[in-house]
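ok so i was messing around last nite and threw this chain in just to see what happens. nothing serious, just curious
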Amino acid sequence: MEDRPPRVKAGLWVKMALRMADLGGRSGAVLRKGDPDAGGVLVVLRSRDGLAVLSQIRTAEGELSWMRATGPVPVEQAAADAYVERQVGFDPDLWVLEFDAPDLLPPFEARII
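result:
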């Protein structure tokens, strides 16, 4: 069996992401607290052109990656909110973070697929 990379608890990962944003001069906020140990994460990126929602996923190798859950182009607030609400309905342990992101890229290192 292959060794999988250790998983960081969700609450700790959230603190790291917010700190990285702060260090990069971007504001970030927790919109919804999830399970501190095992919750998944959604990230809302806000720019002048609209919003993008990134959904945390794991590759087959267990590596943390992200997908543009609302598609490749920015969406309006209502579309982002509807996506987040649906996902929280499926997973009540989900964390939701929001960051100012003029380039629609997260303020933390992220592999987006």
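not much to say yet. The chain has a mean pLDDT of 93.
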